[in-house]
Amino acid sequence: MDLIKKITAPNPSVFTGKGTNTYLIGKQDISLIDPGPNISEHIEEIIKQGNGNIKRIIVTHTHTDHSPAALPIAKILDVPMYGRLVDGDSSWEDETFNPDVVLKDKDIIETEEYTLEAIHTPGHASNHFCFLIKDNNCLITGDHIMDGSTVVIGPPDGNMNDYLNSLQRLLSYKVDFFAPGHGNFMREPEKTIQSIIRHRLSRENKALRKLKDFGENTLDNLVKHVYDDVSEQLHPIALYSLEAHLIKLVSEKKVKKNNDFYKLI
After folding, report:
1. Contact in structure between 165 and 128 (CB atoms under 8 Å)
2. Distance of alpha carbon 166 from its chain centroid, rounded?
3. How far is CA 38 from CA 44, 73, 88, 112, 201, in A?
4. What is the DSSP string of 124-172?
5. Residues 121, 170: contact at Cβ < 8 Å?
6. Which superfamily, per CATH, for 4-187?
7. With contact defined as beta carbons under 8 Å apart, do 129 and 142 qualify?
8. How far is residue 97's CA from residue 238's CA, in Å, rounded to a whole number?
9. What is the rounded (10 degree) CA torsion for 239, 11, 126, 222?
10. What average pLDDT does the segment 193-200 reach?
11. What is the pTM of this model?
12. Element holding 236 (H helix, E strand)
């Protein structure tokens, strides 16, 4: 943990939990990961705790709770921004972010204190990366894995099939703990990943069962059945992931979409 300092942004919400986590990696040669929202007090705290040693800004993905503070901090400190833009359109996109260094899968950022490996993990967003601190086997997960809640997969940029494949891929890495974009540090990473995969597939199977029970259905109506174990207040959020599941099932020719209606094939 000596390599990692966590600062939580003051942006609590139903999407962000207690707030977005910003991470400072290193002491003399600091990588700032996920600077978070453009909130002046948060930016001031990051710069204060960076103590003049922030050398680069890295973003896991460019949703508006993770990257908007990158540009103002980069201008203040005169340091480069690392990341990647989304492949298509995204309603959650931070339009201010334009990376100086475009990240690719398996890129290495090496300092005298630590080594980071960039792992492209599309799913929550097409440009999502996790970052493995190879010196202590900590994985900075951004919104790929969160503490205390499941991740929202919002089409068209979010993709359920990509998300599940990215989770499966992470099982091949040596990881001792997660540093998520929201919530606390997480132990038992392999168990956590397997649990998330099981949960997603269980929800997908439930969608198939409810389509069998209730027949042809719209997304707005189907969410009431597939997420009947979740508060109705959360159904507007659940709609995103349910649509992502249905898009996956359509691609697998298990479900057919006709106008706004879905039905089993």
Report:
1. no
2. 11
3. 10, 9, 23, 30, 36
4. SSTT-EEEEETTTTEEEEETSS-SSSPPP--TTT--HHHHHHHHHHHTT
5. yes
6. Ribonuclease Z/Hydroxyacylglutathione hydrolase-like (3.60.15.10)
7. yes
8. 27
9. 0
10. 97
11. 0.95
12. helix 235-251
CATH topology of domain 196-264: Arc Repressor Mutant, subunit A (1.10.10)
Nearest to 133 by CA among 265, 264, 6: 6
> Which tokens is 226 given?
């597939």
* Helix/strand/coil for 83: strand
The whole-number average pLDDT for the span 36-55 is 98
Residues 6+ apart with CB under 8 A from 146: 17, 180, 181, 182, 183
Alpha-carbon distance values, 33 to 38, 39, 65, 204, 222 (Å):
14, 16, 13, 33, 38
Strands (E), the chain: 4-8, 21-25, 30-33, 54-58, 81-83, 101-102, 108-110, 115-120, 129-133, 138-142, 177-180, 217-218, 255-258, 261-264
Positive or negative: CA dihedral 161, 167, 171, 173: positive
Write the single-letter amino acid at 33: I
User: Count of CB atoms within 10 A of residue 187's CB?
Assistant: 10
Nearest to 83 by CA among 72, 67, 64: 67
pLDDT at 15: 87
Left (φ > 0), alpha (ψ -120 to 50) or beta: where does 34 sit?
Answer: left
Give, as one character, the DSSP assignment of residue 8. Answer: E
Instruction: Name beta bridge partners: 24.
Output: 5, 32
Q: Give pLDDT, residue 91.
A: 77
Q: Where are the domains of the chain?
A: 4-187, 196-264
